[in-house]
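INTERNAL TRANSFER SHEET
From: sequence group
To: structure group
Subject: Porphobilinogen deaminase

Please process the attached sequence and return the structure record in the designated field. Keep the field labels unchanged so the import script can parse them.
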Amino acid sequence: MVTTSAGKKTYVIGSRKSQLALVQTYIVRDTLQAIYPQFEFKIETMSTTGDIILNQALSKIGEKALFTKELETALENKTVDFVVHSLKDLPTVLPEGMLLGAIMKRENPNDALVLSEKNRGLTLATLPKGAVIGTSSLRRVAQLKRNYPHLTFIDVRGNLNTRLAKLDIEDSSYDGIVLAVAGLVRIDQGHRISQVLTASDSLHAVSQGALGVECRQNDEEVKELLESLNHDDTRITCLSERALMRRLEGGCSVPIGVNTKLDKEANTLWMHGLVSSLDGQNVVEYKDKISLKDADTREKREKLAEKLGSDVANDLCEKGADKILAELSHRSH
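Return from structure group:
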């Protein structure tokens, strides 16, 4: 934080450089600016490992903090006051001294199919045998291979615009690509969506569609500032999903899917978790729920939500998920 010559406090926000990352950071900045007109908010951009290494599949790079490490280093060095992440990219165990200060209202968490011009009007089910679908996510490949064995799945890397451009070129290798609905909507490309995938097609990634804001644990001023960004229902669902992921120790390179619903009328949180082998042949699923009726504070609700995530993860492991994950870990080393 700096004070300008005009005497205004200026907070520096760290962001990745891609269009989507910046759009997401603008959402945070503009929301804060409307609440705190007396302060200024400046954006500092940087590239992360995941932005720089584009010639390898995410699962082969072998790091968990692919899209966050450089941002967290800037936070640690106090060159920025807080950083904005796609929450699904943020590892479930934060570096010492760091805190998830805010989770904003979630966009649609599902995956979407974007088809090339020649395939418009088709769906995953009606695409011809051997049609090529691009995705950088092992989670999507594992689930979609199982449900659509007639399709071929290959890796596609790069930011959202790069991936769309790879689909749109004349001799594209791809008939379609699978991306997150949220990212497409945020960069005004929602009209490109050919099919929104349901939970029966593919469970989404942990925290997909949500924005997380990370800050220093001892920065009371920034923590108070970020509190206004929190969306309680999104916090409940995402913290539950992150607890599942933490127990399973998953990252970009593990096929873990989840679907979480908060039934506000019944005051109950539901979770459906899934772990799959890479070929989609060995799949373990588990569904559970927890009542939030007796939780009269946010802290108690969040603890119960995290308990649900851990419980679902434990049950998945009892059903064989730990063996699948151990095999994947062995294969990647």
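Handover comment: Residues 50-65 have pLDDT under 50 and may be disordered. The first strand starts at residue 2 and ends at 3.
Transfer complete.
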